[in-house]
Design brief:
The strands form two sheets. Strands 8-7-6-9-5-10 form a six-stranded mixed sheet. It has eleven helices and eleven strands. Helix 1 (20-24) links the parallel strand 1 and strand 2 (32-39). The two termini are 33 Å apart. 35% of the residues lie in helices and 17% in strands. The relative contact order is 0.19. It has two domains: 7-83 and 212-308, Periplasmic binding protein-like II (D-Maltodextrin-Binding Protein, domain 2, 3-Layer(aba) Sandwich), CATH 3.40.190; 87-207, 3-Layer(aba) Sandwich (D-Maltodextrin-Binding Protein, domain 2). It is of the alpha/beta class.
């Protein structure tokens, strides 16, 4: 019996531990022949995927939901390789008098763009946890949106002029706070919330939500030609995560001297596999994401778990 040829697939990923096994060649598949491109710059990865350079990519969930709800020929598998708690990604100047999220009402807050998954989560958290609606803040964005968004009534979104970075504008007093997906480089800023780690751990205990920023998105044209690829991709990503978690468990693998204590603390709070793939176990995360996208005008029309994610079977662990 002749074995079927493996499906050739060009995959773009983030530059992180969950994606490292595929681009190191540690994930083996008889059904897929992977060519993997890791990116440290998420925005570049997303732009090049949308230009058609890759069949599959780790991709912004805010942008995916926006495009999918407007009929884009894309699909996703429930693989969530980029997750961060977002309470600690609201930054103010070190000398700012602001200490409480409620104090952001009426203030100018800088964001890279409105269609940014970190911003989506922060706006949702501000509303759910602190009573600050998206309409209560003046959002000031560095970049114009890639697609047209109809903002909810009363939402104020302004485009910043000039080329200065958000960090510089914050230090100059142009902005009261910034919401950015990575910790700003340079001095002079601090998280708005002190003790954010404890706040985030309490949030998880209460909600069981570990916010996800990315999913793995596939072109429908590729799926039409290769319908079995989605299930095998899910299996490959699940195997990659298993290997990454095994690496974490090995203290010789890390550059951190006290990695075992970090690892143990995370297990006590989040359990043995906080990076769970699949729909099962991620219902609350996905439901919050869908609700926030609708409330903020990011999705257009009704969006559901079933039309966002393919049924690939299994939990992914």
């Amino acid at each position: 019996m002749t074995r079927a040829r493996p499906i050739r697939l060009v995959l773009a990923t983030g530059y992180h531990a969950r994606a490292r096994p595929p681009w190191e060649g540690r994930v083996k598949s008889r059904k897929l022949k992977l060519r993997v491109f890791p990116f440290g710059n998420d925005g570049e990865c997303h732009r090049r995927f949308l230009r058609g350079e890759f069949d599959v990519a780790e991709f912004s969930l805010a942008l995916y939901i926006a495009l999918k709800s407007r009929g884009a020929p894309l699909a996703a598998i429930p693989v969530f390789p980029n997750r961060k708690f977002r309470h600690s990604y609201i930054f103010v100047r070190e000398d700012s008098s602001l200490r409480d999220p409620a104090e952001l009402k009426g203030k100018a807050v800088g964001i890279p763009a409105y269609l940014n998954t970190c911003g989506l989560w922060v706006r949702g958290l501000l509303g759910d946890e602190y009573g600050v609606r998206a309409q209560d803040v003046i959002w000031q964005a560095l970049k114009k949106e890639a697609i047209r968004i109809t903002l909810p009534q009363g939402t104020r979104l302004e485009l910043l002029s000039g080329k200065a970075a958000l960090h510089a504008r914050l230090l100059a007093g142009e902005l009261a706070a910034i919401v950015v997906p990575d910790i700003p480089e340079g001095d002079g800023v601090r998280p708005l919330l002190s003790g954010s780690k404890e706040i985030e751990q309490d949030y998880y205990r209460r909600t069981q939500i570990f916010p996800t920023s990315h999913a793995v998105v596939i072109r429908k044209s590729f799926l039409k030609k290769n319908p079995s690829a989605a299930r095998e991709l899910f299996r490959a990503w699940s195997e990659a995560k298993k290997l990454a978690l095994q690496d974490d468990e090995d203290p010789t693998y890390s550059n951190f001297a006290w990695i075992r204590s970090f690892w143990q603390e995370q297990r006590e709070v989040l359990g043995p596999d906080p990076w769970r793939y699949g729909i099962s176990g991620n219902e609350r995360v996905i439901e919050a994401l869908i609700r926030y996208a609708a409330e903020q005008g990011i999705s257009e029309g009704k969006v559901s778990v079933d039309n966002l994610f393919l049924d690939v079977g299994g939990s992914g662990g």
